[in-house]
């Protein structure tokens, strides 16, 4: 089995992140490609910035990074964390949206002040705010 990695990056959006159309377009493309490529993850947008966690095989992640770097919808990509993993945290989600509402935005602002040391907490925050039916809740 090829090595799995998980990557967290932040970038600055060039368009509006409060546009449902912008976000739905990015999510739709991501889901179609990631289904094909075996990638999973979550995407959040906050204060004109994207935060995305992506997990999958190393070479596939590298390929996506090259496409992301050439995408004019964002700039200033900063990789906050990238490490080998044994298990996916976003299995089943080819790309899911995280809703970073006012209450989580404050926590995220705090974490983003020291993103390199807060990567795991940022990922946990994205994981807690997924916009999906809480199937696991009774
Ligand atoms: C914030 C952001 C997140 C993205 N996430 C993904 C992703 O997870 N997977 C993906 O294939 N493309 C993603 N894209 C789109 C890529 O940059 C690129 O446009 C796309 O992969 C090219 O797909 P195509 O070859 O089908 O045109 C993202 C773009 C932005 C702006």
Major β-sheet strand ordering: 4-1-3-2-5
Helix content bin:
25-40%
| Unreliable sequence segments | none
**How many separate structural domains?**
1
Total E-strand runs: 5
> Which structural class is indicated by helix and strand composition?
alpha+beta
- How many H/I helices? 4
How would the global form be characterised? Answer: globular
Mean pLDDT: 91
List cofactors, ions and other ligands: flavin mononucleotide
The run of helices and strands is: EHEEHEEHH
List the main descriptive attributes of the protein structure presented here.
blue light photoreceptor activity; Acylphosphatase-like_dom_sf; BLUF_domain; Alpha-Beta Plaits; 138 residues; FAD binding; alpha+beta; binds flavin mononucleotide; Blue light sensor protein; globular; 5 strands
What does this structure look like?
- Helix 3 runs antiparallel to helix 4.
- This protein has helices spanning 20-37, 58-69, 102-112, 119-128, and strands at residues 4-13, 40-46, 49-57, 74-85, 96-98.
- It is an alpha+beta fold and 138 residues long.
- The protein has a five-stranded mixed beta sheet with strand order 4-1-3-2-5, sandwiched between helices.
- It has one domain: Alpha-Beta Plaits.
- 37% of the residues lie in helices and 30% in strands.
- It is built from four helices and five strands.
- A hairpin with a 2-residue loop joins strand 2 (40-46) and strand 3 (49-57).
- The termini are far apart.
- Bound molecules: flavin mononucleotide.
How are the secondary structure elements laid out?
Elements lengths: L3 E10 L6 H18 L2 E7 L2 E9 H12 L4 E12 L10 E3 L3 H11 L6 H10 L10
Parallel strand pairs: 2-5
Antiparallel strand pairs: 1-3, 1-4, 2-3
Bound molecules: flavin mononucleotide (FMN).
Protein name: Blue light sensor protein
GO molecular function, one term: FAD binding
InterPro entries: Acylphosphatase-like_dom_sf, BLUF_domain
